[in-house]
Amino acid sequence: MNNSDSLKSVSFECLCEDCAVNCCGPFDGVAPNLQSTQGIKHTKIILLPQDVEQLEEISRDDLISTENGFRFMKTHEDGRCHAFIGGKCEVYHHRPTVCRAYPLYFDMFTGLCVDTNCPGIDNKESINSSGMSHFYDDLVKVYKYWVGI
Hints:
By secondary structure, the chain is an alpha+beta fold. It has one domain. The protein has three helices and six strands. A two-stranded antiparallel ribbon has the order 1-2. Strand 3 and strand 4 (88-89) form a beta hairpin. The protein is globular. 16% of the residues are buried. Pfam families: CxxCxxCC (PF03692). This is Fe-S-cluster containining protein.
């Protein structure tokens, strides 16, 4: 049996510029006691190689920063993404893989997780994966990047 078969459905709709929380803004990160072994802050928006290619193809390499061999989206001091202007993502159709996977993320201890602060999740009591399958491919790409598959 597929793990998602036993889960109830949850609906998600991105509220974009109408969102009061906005995932493109400052991010508090995960548990404060978790530290990246690569020295990457949880506020960084990692770019996969295909993300870099897409941004370069649309001549938006001005949004890319490089630190310690990793590529990231440029962010403001408070963590807001440089592509987030006037309540909208200027590169929405070419946004990074990690942004396309949001509000899902994978935790090695608890498995598939969702950001419950996201107001696009309509039922926080029954959050699960079956209604969010269109995010899986992007989430798997991010996971494979980090584990080096």
